[in-house]
User: Fold Ferredoxin from Rhizobium loti.
Amino acid sequence: MAGVAVSTTINGDHVEYLCQPDETLLDVLRDRLGLTGAKEGCGTGDCGACSVILDDRLVCSCLVLGAEAEGRQVETIEGMAHGDQLHPLQQKFLEHAALQCGICTPGFLIAAKDLLAKNPSPTEEEIRFGLAGNLCRCTGYDKIVRAVQDAANVMKGA
Assistant:
């Protein structure tokens, strides 16, 4: 089967790759490009562990074909920090101990980034709703919500 040539932007960098027509964006990111931050939790779009931002829209990369990234902007967890400088959300997740095993963390961080980009001052209810597509089996959700609230306050002041 012939590959599909894709030219896209990932985390601000121009990227070209070949993928199979039925290959998911998650598989392309992990297996072809070495961006292993997005995790495969379910493969059906139910857990949010593979979340990325595609053209300013939060998506589960397990439900998007790699070929669909053609000409589009993709943001992954690898693009959140700037060198050694963590994104405020990453810093607050550490400070609030809002992670344990780490499988869900990249998806939560990307979902929270998307939420705060669209709503810089969310209520607790809006945070819980905005993160509802992400599942955590270890921490529960209170520490995650508190970390997002704290990051929102920091980001508003920056």
Observations:
- The mean pLDDT is 96.
